[in-house]
Design goal:
With 436 residues, this protein is of the alpha/beta class. The chain folds into three domains: 5-127, Methylthiotransferase, N-terminal domain (Rossmann fold, 3-Layer(aba) Sandwich), CATH 3.40.50; 146-378, Alpha-Beta Horseshoe (pyruvate-formate lyase- activating enzyme); 383-435. The protein is 34% helix and 22% strand. Strand 1 (5-10), helix 1 and strand 2 form a beta-alpha-beta unit. It is globular, with a radius of gyration of 22 Å. It starts with a strand and ends with a strand. It binds iron/sulfur cluster (SF4). Iron/sulfur cluster is lined by residues 155, 157, 159, 162, 164-165, 199-200, 239.
Amino acid sequence: MKKKKVAFSTLGCKLNFTETDTIINKFLMKGYEYVKYISFADIYIINTCSVTNNAEKKLKKLVKIALKNNVNAFIVAIGCYSQVNPKKISLINGIDLIIGAKKKFKIINYLENINLYKKKTAKIYYSDLKKSDLYFPSYSKLNRTRSFLKIQDGCDYKCSYCTIPKARGTSKSDEITNIIKYAKNVIKKGIKEIVLTGVNIGDFGKNLKPKSNFLELMKAMDSFLYEKKIIRIRISSIEPNLLNDDIINFILKSKIFVHHFHIPFQSGSDEILKKMKRRYSSNFFEKKIIKIKNLMPNACIGSDVIVGFPGEQEKNFIETYLFLSKLDISYFHVFSYSERINTEAISMKNSIPQKIRYKRSKILRILSKRKKYNFYYKNINKKKKVLFEKKNKSGYIYGYTDNFIRTKTTWKSFLINQIKKVTLLNIDYLGNMICH
Ligand code: SF4
């Protein structure tokens, strides 16, 4: 029997990519042929994101691409947006099946129990997350250099702009023994870097019996992996109020946890932070950065900022701009506020016009670029360990340092997937660090 061709596209965060990777492996084990999304396939699966309006636009575009490749293609939307707004997705012409967050890992069962002909209206498999604390483990193994290892899912916080708690439910974590087991599998595949990922990973362990916490997990991974001496661990992101001094001091001493902190911060205005229902003040955040930089001057600190939140007057935006300008951080991602259904913020007054949101995000992106350049500049002539990737890009091989600097050196095949100590020489016109 001819193998069915299946193609995937993922929107959103690292966690979504990790889960797609796990689902792809389930299809491969069932004998499907995994093909690129731009090519012909019988089934197209889109792992959706509920965080921004952009994600919605991208979903529609992906459906069009699939139908262009195969007008009879069976198209499935899974994941966060399918969980938050299945009805809206069912209005998108061409989608045949919609599967929510809890049921997405059972997708093959659904596909093998329905006929794969185009549907007039999409079939929806959805379940309320409130009653569920089911946890689905996941780690990526298709990338040979680094693996995203899911350790936690869902969130108990109530940030007023965020749909994630509705898309992924309450905070739940995997058992430490399981995580170590998956880390072993990753090492067996010769992968050199593990990126711990989740939704609110600083909240790790709260649902476990007996309770645990993120530091306990870090210690368990450190002692197990250190003796292997071939791996490094990166923390994808951690909330400022959960990044306590014990964690910072542990990373300072650890031989495998890299000095890279991604700490979402969202606004430099305490008035706006309050409206966002974030759990810290700008002063608290600043002290955290100063603490890290005092202990690890070369650490990379990244962040996320939202512009155009309802009620963000010019003075609030200037507060954010000045705050970020003085902060010793290395880069930050800028998001324009997006109205999301079922969030508190959507009904807040003083909505900011799109063109103002656009202007403010442009200004902050320029500032972020400057921060990155300054951070790179401070690292010139320093010796750093780089994990080189696999591709030969116009005669160069690329990789990241432990403190997250994008580097390149002349292509040498023996460097593939190797961690090598190099000297950082200079920054090329594209913003990559040349090393030797
Ligand atoms: S911490 Fe806030 S922004 Fe992050 S996932 Fe939870 S509710 Fe959303």
